Amino acid sequence: MIRFEHVTKRYPDGTTAVDDLSFEVAEGELVTLVGPSGCGKTTTMKMVNRLIDPTEGRILVDGEDIAGVDPVKLRRRIGYVIQQVGLFPHKTVLENTATVPQLLGWSRRKARERAAELLDLVGLDPAVHGDRYPDQLSGGQRQRVGVARALAADPPVLLMDEPFGAVDPVVREHLQSEFLRLQRQVRKTVLFVTHDIEEAVRLGDRMAVYGAGRVEQFDTPATVLGAPASPYVADFVGSDRGLKRLSVTAIGQDDLEQPPVVRLDDAVEAAAERLAAQDARWAVVLDAGGALHGWVAREALADGAAVRDHARRMEAWLPLGASLKQAFSVMLQHDAGWVAVLDDDERFRGVLTPAGLHEALRRSVSGVEQLESVAGS
Ligand SMILES: Nc1ncnc2c1ncn2[C@@H]1O[C@H](COP(=O)(O)OP(=O)(O)OP(=O)(O)O)[C@@H](O)[C@H]1O
């Protein structure tokens, strides 16, 4: 969708901001550009919407060399979100969000309807916030309006330059989660500039780690953390990259244990027999529809009619594919001996125990070492 071919940018004073850059961002992919200040991230981004033109090389958007495209027309296909947001102070939130559709010639009513829909999508109630002015919003809310405005004309491509850089860490994490949720819905092709390695790892399908003007490594966060391509990248991602890897290592089916499963309506004797046959002290309890209800202890199944007479609720669960970091946090939060793991259709897939989690942690960390020795050989 966005393709850089040997792109170099030299400013008139002789500074080479970007040096022979080649990479491709697939349709619907979110690529983070991360690196220290002055390494050329913003220059890279501004070349995509022709705020800056390259000195050498070419950039293709959707197969078309953008050097031949009128910048104004090009920018209609490309949403742009920056740290300073740049909302018009004298326009309301709704008017700000409707700006681009109106420039594109939409009727005032249609543009405002679309704006209200988008504010809703980014988690702002148009009835509450729509008529406010930007200075009546919090920093986090202003950033959300910036994202809504960039999405208003439904461009296939989004450029985001440190969009969450100016808010405090708690709000930033919140905005990141919301943005990930939003991106799963809208599936834009996104270039996202940040100097925060945690943010780059968390948001990126792939990440480009910049050294001075060059991409030192372009790969998935798990690979960048597990097998840094050079001592520079290893140093940049930090000595705690093993820990960071926990947030990008997913729980898999192999990490789960399979205790006996009984249903709320099962007769007590039949349930007790099943537990005895597997020599288990407890079983997971599902309701008639197969949804997780909780658990039941073997010794409780001595009397009564159905499992439901003795079943206890268990609220904690994790989706299959959740990160080890999330798993750790849910286990600590619920002080639980096990956590049920459900798939996308909320079907029960097994339980994660502290032993299973420990095994997965070891695998993740030793993965780092193994990959390191591969990278070093
Ligand atoms: N108009 C300009 N003229 C000359 N040099 C420039 C110009 N704009 C940027 N540069 C230089 O180009 C290099 C790359 O700048 P760029 O803004 O792309 O970096 P960055 O990685 O986005 O940095 P930051 O994270 O600080 O925003 C820097 O050395 C910068 O000083």
TrEMBL record:
PROSITE patterns: ABC_TRANSPORTER_1 (PS00211), ABC_TRANSPORTER_2 (PS50893), CBS (PS51371). SUPFAM superfamilies: CBS-domain pair (SSF54631), P-loop containing nucleoside triphosphate hydrolases (SSF52540). Residues 311-367 form the CBS domain. Keywords: ATP-binding, CBS domain, Nucleotide-binding, Repeat, Transport. GO terms for molecular function: ATP binding. The keyword Zinc does not apply. The keyword Nucleotide-binding applies. CDD domains: ABC_OpuCA_Osmoprotection. It holds the Pfam family CBS. Residues 2-237 form the ABC transporter domain. InterPro entries: AAA+_ATPase, ABC_transporter-like_ATP-bd, ABC_transporter-like_CS, CBS_dom, CBS_dom_sf, Gly-betaine_transp_ATP-bd, P-loop_NTPase. It comes from the Bacteria. Belongs to the ABC transporter superfamily. This is Betaine/proline/choline family ABC transporter ATP-binding protein. It comes from Streptantibioticus parmotrematis.
